[in-house]
Amino acid sequence: MKVILATHNPGKIREFSQMAEPCGIELLPMPDDLDPEETGSTFLENALIKAHAAAKVTNMPAVADDSGLEIEALSGRPGIRSARYCEGTDKDRREKILEEMAGVPEGKRQAAFVCAMALCLPDGTVLKTTEERWHGSIGFVSRGENGFGYDPIFELDGRNQTSAMITNEEKNTLSHRGQAWRKMVDFIGSPEMKF
Ligand code: ITT
Fold first, then answer.
1. Digit-coded pLDDT (tens) for 108-165
2. Which of 30, 120, 148, 165 has the fewest Cβ atoms surrounding its Cβ within 10 A?
3. Which residue has the CA at smallest separation from atom 13 of ligand 1?
4. φ, ψ at 115 (rounded to 5°)
5. How, if at all, do strands 2-5 and 26-29 pair?
6. Residue nearest to ligand 1 atom 19, measured at CA
7. Is residue 35 annotated as a catalytic residue, yes or no?
8. Where are the domains of the chain?
9. 2-188 is a CATH 3.90.950.10 domain
10. Is 129 helix (H, G, I), strand (E, B) or coil?
11. Residue 179 to residues 58, 82, 105, 134: CA-CA distances in angstroms?
């Protein structure tokens, strides 16, 4: 089965591709010039905007995720604004978070990665949505080279490691995106799925 993957984020593309291959799902890139404005007020609304736009333009089923980091001590920020929390690079955004969290003690640094995923058809049908969370906490420094985005500051519960210090395979097993993807794949393989 061929599905458009509606993202331009290379980190997401890598993770989705690794997860899709063993499922027999071929993910195709979305057109380079398609960049729908994320005007939603929730992760799910933004995932739907991206999946609808890609399905319509390509005339194929499309899957999108909208994801981000919610930090309790920052009242849920950066949340749906994770990709654009401040100007600059992922490193700049990690540093901004570490600065904002500087006075927050161990034990009060809980956070979760959130991933909403949507699978849509060109006629606007929403085939399936999923939303999953990965709980952890914010470290005091950046650690690790793997992953992308906020991974180097996301400390795993019960382990002395960030999500940038584990393998891609392990991240996909544990992560918000991996969990949301597996629910999507269960649906694609189910009798409800017909298009
Ligand atoms: P697309 O809209 O093209 O998919 P994007 O990067 O703009 O790409 P989002 O709007 O969903 O995607 O923003 C997600 C941001 O949240 C992403 O840029 C990272 O900063 C962060 N993020 C999401 N999942 C992450 C993960 O698994 N590891 C680290 N950071 C993550």
1. 999 999 999 999 999 999 999 999 999 999 999 999 999 999 999 999 999 999 999 9
2. 148
3. 83
4. -135, 120
5. parallel
6. 149
7. no
8. 2-188
9. yes
10. strand
11. 27, 19, 29, 9
